[in-house]
Each structure stands twice: as structure tokens, then as C-alpha cells.
Amino acid sequence: MDNHRLNELTLAHLDGCISDSEFAELQQLLESDADARTRYVEMARLDSELRESGGAFDEPASEKSPQLSTWSRMPRVAQTLVIAATVLILLVPTWMMVRPDRPVGNQVGGTTNATPSKPVRSVAVISAEADAVWTAEDGKRIGKGTALEPGMLNLAEGLAQIDFFSGASMTLSGPTVIELRSRNLAVLHRGRVRANVPPAARGFEIQTADVRLEDLGTSFGIVAGDNGQSDVVVFDGEVRAVDREADELSLLAGDTAHLVEGEATMSSSQELGEFPDILAIIERSGDLVQSRYARWKAAATDRRSDPRLIAYYDFENLTDTSRRLANRAVAGSGSELDGGIVGARVADGRWPGKPALDFRGEGDRVRFNIPGEFDAMTLYAWVRIDALDRDLNSLFLTDHFDPGEIHWQLSVHGSLHFATSPIGVPPAPAGFEVAPNEQIQAENRRFWSENFWDASQSGHWFLLATTVDRAKQPSVVHYINGQPVGFNGGSNMDRPLPKLRIGYADLGNWTDPIWAKAIRSLNGRIDEFAIYSAALEANEIRTIYMQGRP
Q1: DSSP run (H or E) holding 41
Q2: What phi and psi, each to the nearest 5 degrees, are found at residue 334?
Q3: What is residue 85's predicted lDDT score, i.e. its pLDDT?
Q4: CB within 8 Å of 143: residues ≥ 6 apart
Q5: How many helices (H) and strands (E) does the chain have?
């Protein structure tokens, strides 16, 4: 492992300035080298903690221009030296003084006018997956790269690998339900897992059927049934099974044991099925990626013919020289609704080879002019959120905020926000350049979704959708990854909405802010965007998600 190169790539990724080729190089390093994964996790944890100590805050309701945190203002060279010095400290015996489950960052950087966010107490990370379908009680998206806190983990289908911060790793075959207790302990409730424990993680434990399996630096597999009975097979090394009576059973390479009613007994060799390793996951994921991309292309072609579409942008066939984003909707105004690409560069989307636009600079955007007035509307976009740097981060904002115009954006808290107003921005009183904020908000209809994003999900793709129907109550519904979510705030949410208008607007930015220096540029990527003249039903949003999920 080239530590110097790994440090460069890791720092670039944590800083949000890594290129596609560098990101691919970093992924290859992490997939092929367990030491590299351990080093990456430590650096990510340290980076998060240092950001927290620098005073990163979040506040969605404020319309003030953001300020950089102390960490963000620190020169990158200084950041590198701080992290490198801390990593060196971790290499000496004082690492034992660190609490096993100390918090890692859940910061949302960029402003200094709110309370600190709650830290994430992560114990593991999903390092690879193939055709994985996760079921999360809180609705949060789970996937490759997700930092995992203690709690239940349900893999309904497919394969996945989890790397614990202790250095142990585990492959799961769905359906599997496992509970993460700490970086050194997991409880298998049912399903099939394979554990690999290097010497540095010796002592890692898995509990099942009231039997504790203590690994002594080895590789073993477990199959747990719904009836409380389990079987374990040791592939290499030694495993110690400790039952409820504290009796121990030592299992060596090739041994198989039956675990039932709190007791572990040796059993004859039996067929327990396959226990896939990381190579099988990687191989299968490659085929899956291309298959999903092909399925989405077919679904997108059909979707273009929907007569309710105002405009549809699939981002296909973009190149480095593209300055036009084509409207693919069959009905309607055709190329008149094409967007002009300003600054944003072409990058990989949800799948390798699928184009997206990367929004990173303060000027990056796509310009549109979409005329008309509407009683109902649906907006949806596939978005990769790299960071929420601003109090409010643009998805699709009309120029200024005139009567009936819409604003669709993300808050620094990680919530989805829709707003419109029947009067727009009222005239400024004498002596003011702009009407006071309280006067603007008096008629503003604002709808904030529940928070769904935090920094641990940086770089993940989300289907974000909002439906609006003036004839219904509630008139606005937010969707995250195909699921409706509730509200955590807003204003005038029960009052009638005006006719909805767009006109001149930006994807990923705001051309004519109400307040001076109110920067709303997006930090992330978009690779599909649609506007309908109707409020789609929940099952339609769910279908769009299932057809396009990466």
C-alpha cells in the first residue's frame, strides 16, 4: 500500500475535490487492501472530529449569507499536517486511551449561526454491495459508503460487506438481520454471514442463539435460522464458542458446530451452502451496474411520452463540450425548453458511463425559461449530495421570487424545501433596499421536509421529489427515495397556493437573489430532472425510484 498516495486521495475525497479517475483509484485501493480501508476510516473519523471542533453549524431558516467554519478557512496544507500528525499519534500505544465508540462526524459544514449537529457514533461502514436491498426503519438510505451506527441492520436481498472500525469485516447474504452493538460485537438474529478477523481485530465477537463466538484471528461462517438454531463452520484459524453456562468449545479449521438453546456442540460436516467473499460481491456488482443502467434507459424512454410532462431531462449524450441540456419530453414545447449549461462540467452519474452534471463552483448552473401557469406540479431529480455548504442549497430556483414563482432547494439541516408566495417579494419600504424578511415571510408558503441527509451520506444518490396540488390539503408532499416524508416546519402551510409559475430559472443555483450575497449554489451532481403539470401519485413516485435506483 502506498500510504502517501492513499493520504492524497483520501484528503481530496474528504475535501470534495476528488476527480472521477482519482475516486476510481481510491475505490480500487479500498476494495483490495484491508489496511487501506482501516487507514481511510481513521482519517475520515479524524477529519470529522476536527471539523466539529472548528465550529460547523446549521440553520435552515436563516436567509443570511453563510460564513466558512474555522476548519474550512484553514489552508489545505495545514489540514493535511493536522490529520497526518494525529494519524502518527494513533500509531503509538496511546491509541488504547481512545474510547472504542467515540463519536465520528455528522457535521454539516458551512455556516456559523446555529447549534451544532448531533455526532454520529459510527462503528462500521458498508464497503461493498451487489444487488443489495436494505430495509431501514427510519427510511434512511443505506448503501455503499454508509457509516453505520449501533442498531439493527436488515439486508432483504443481495450481498454486502461491512468493515468494522476494529478491523474485522463481514459479508452478508440476504435475507439477513444483524444487530451492530459496537466495533467489536455483532448479534446475528437470522441469516448468513461470513466473518474475517485479522490479528489486529482478534477478540471480535458474534452472538447468536445465546452463544457467544469469540474469534481468535480467523475466518468463519454462520447460518442462523428463525427457530433460534444456528450452525457455524470455521474456514481458518480458531473460534471459541461460549454458551450460557460459560462452557467453552474450541473450533479449529474445518470444524462445524450446532448452536441451539444456548449450547454449542460439535456436529458432523454438513452442507451449509456458500459464504460469498468480497471478490464475489465485486464481480456481481459489476454485472448489476450495467443491468440497472440498461433497465433505467428503457424506462426513461417510455417516460418521455407521458403527456403530463412539461419538460424531461435525462442528461444522456452529454460530452465535455456540451452547453445545452436537451428536453426529451415528446409532448409540449420541445427544444424551446432546452437548458443552457453554465460552468457545470460533465461527470459520471448514478452508473459508470451515465452522464451527469457536476455543480461545484459558485457560478455553476443550468439556465431555463419555462413559461406558463399551473394548478399542480411535480418536480423530481436524481441528486448526489456531496455537501450542504449553504443555509439553503439550490435544486431549482426561479429568478428572484415574483408572485407564484417556485423555489425548490435543500436546507443545511438536510431537509427538502418548497416555497411559493401569492405576492412574491413586496415593495421595499422607504429607506430599505429590500422588504424586511418578516414582511416577505408573512405571505410565503414554505414546506420543510423531515431531515433525511447528514454528512455520513455524502456522495450518495437520492431521488428527491415534491408534488404540489392547489386543490388538495395538504397541497405539498415531499418524497425521499420513493417514500413520502413528513414535515418538520414551514409557514402558511394550510393557506391556499397561488397559480404556480417558473419562467426564468436555474438548476443548481440562483441568478437574481432577493438578498445581496445570498449564495445558493449546489455542491453535488444531478443526472435526471423532470417537471410535470400534475401531482404524481405515491405509487408513481415509487416506480420512478425503483426503475432508477443505483
Answers
A1: helix 34-53
A2: 60, -135
A3: 47
A4: 126, 129, 132, 134, 460, 550
A5: 8, 30
